[in-house]
C-alpha cells in the first residue's frame, strides 16, 4: 500500500515571504511620503492664498509695458480740442517711460453703467484695460480733468520703487477726512499694497489712482462697480461709493495705501476741496481741475490752457 508523501516544502518559501514583507513595508513608506508631500503642497497653497503678497509680482513679457495708463475720454462734456491735448500729454509721458496708453470713450460703457452717472465708467474701463493687457504689472487711472505736469517722473521713481512707497504711506489717518473713525492701518507695509490713492479735504480721490494687477484688483473693481452702490444715488457717485467701501470693508483697506495729495493728484487753485497741502505747486506730478466741467462759471479748456503751455515748455526743454 502506498501513501502519498507530504508535499515538500519549497526551499524558496522563506525568501518569498521576506520579499512580501519588504514590499509591504516599502508601500507603507511610499504612502507616508505621498501623504507628507500632499500636506506640504496643501500648506504652500494655503499660505499663497491667505497671503497673496508673498507671491511673485506680475511680470510683463518682452514687448509688453509694465504700466498701462487708463484715460476715459468724455466727448459729451469735453471739447475735441481739449481732449487732443489730454491725449498728447499721455502719449508723451508713456513714450518717455515705456508705458502703454489705454484710451476709451465713456459712451463705450453706457450699457454697463445703466441709469447711474457715467462717471462710474472708470471701473469697467479699468477692467477692460486689464483684459486687454493681462500681463501688465500696474494700471494707472488718470481722469480726463487731469494733466501730467512733471513728465520726467516715472511712476517707479516717484511712488513704486521699494522703500519709496513705505516713506509716502499715510498710516493711522482717517480714511475719509477730516474725522472718519475708520483709519488706515498703523502697521501696514508696502508689500501689502495693491491700490494707491490720495484724498482731498472731503473724500478719497479716484481721479488719480494706481492699481496693481492681480486677484485683488479684479475683486476691488467688482465690488466698487456693484449695482448696489451704483443704484444707491450717492451724491458724488463713484467717489462716495469708494468712500463707503473703504470704511466698511477691511479687506480693501488692508490692501490700500493713501499718499499725500500732491504726490498723486494736486488740485488747481480754482478747484474746491484741496487738502491742507493739496493745491498745485510747480514741480508736482499731476494737476487736476476738479469740478471744472460741472461748476457754473468755470471752463475746463480755459483753465487747462496756461498749464498746457507750461507743460509744453517743460517737454521741449527736457
UniProtKB/TrEMBL annotation:
<dbReference type="GO" id="GO:0000009">
    <property type="term" value="F:alpha-1,6-mannosyltransferase activity"/>
</dbReference>
<dbReference type="InterPro" id="IPR008630">
    <property type="entry name" value="Glyco_trans_34"/>
</dbReference>
<feature type="region of interest" description="Disordered">
    <location>
        <begin position="1"/>
        <end position="20"/>
    </location>
</feature>
<keyword id="KW-1133">Transmembrane helix</keyword>
<keyword id="KW-0472">Membrane</keyword>
<feature type="transmembrane region" description="Helical">
    <location>
        <begin position="30"/>
        <end position="51"/>
    </location>
</feature>
<protein>
    <recommendedName>
        <fullName>Galactosyl transferase</fullName>
    </recommendedName>
</protein>
<keyword id="KW-0812">Transmembrane</keyword>
<keyword id="KW-0328">Glycosyltransferase</keyword>
<keyword id="KW-0808">Transferase</keyword>
<dbReference type="InterPro" id="IPR029044">
    <property type="entry name" value="Nucleotide-diphossugar_trans"/>
</dbReference>
<dbReference type="GO" id="GO:0006487">
    <property type="term" value="P:protein N-linked glycosylation"/>
</dbReference>
<comment type="similarity">
    <text>Belongs to the glycosyltransferase 34 family.</text>
</comment>
<dbReference type="GO" id="GO:0000136">
    <property type="term" value="C:mannan polymerase complex"/>
</dbReference>
<dbReference type="Pfam" id="PF05637">
    <property type="entry name" value="Glyco_transf_34"/>
</dbReference>
